Amino acid sequence: MGELYDRATFYRSVQTLTHAGIIHRIVADNVMVKYALNNCENGHHHQVDHAHFYCRKCHNLYCLKSIKVQSLNLPAGFLDEEHDLVIRGICNQCNETVPVENA
Predict the structure, then answer these.
(1) Pairing of β 61-68 and β 33-37
(2) What is the block-wise mean pLDDT of the chain (103 residues), using blocks of 10 residues?
(3) For the residues of 25-49, what is the DSSP string, one character each?
């Protein structure tokens, strides 16, 4: 977007949407952070019960709702407030060794 927007205003807007629960932050790798829209059917909330897949080749981030993240069995006194599972690798579109079927 070049000079079409003010970076500080954009950053503050993203932070406001995150704090309001409209979007959530996903750390894809050491230098890339992506944001995704939360489920807004019953209020704004991010469903933390599933994994995400980050393709290192095309840099797409996929929501894998079929891969469930189980509740963590933490030691006494520990409180789980949030957790993320990001699987990194090559997606089926970029993987040249696997024939791509109709999606």
Answers:
(1) unpaired
(2) 77 89 81 77 58 90 81 85 84 79 52
(3) EEE-SSS-EEEEEPB-BTBSB---S
The domain segmentation of the chain, as residue ranges, is 2-89
- Print burial letters for 22-59: b (CB count within 10 Å at least 16), e (below 16): ebbebebeeeeebeeebeeeeeeebeeeebbbbbeeee
Cα–Cα dist 67/44, whole Å: 22
Three-state SS string over 43-89 comes to ECECCCCEEEEEECCCCCEEEEEEEECCCCCCCCCCCCCCCCCEEEE
Judge whether 66 and 98 are in contact, CB under 8 Å: no
- How many residues in total does the chain contain? 103
Global pTM? Answer: 0.63
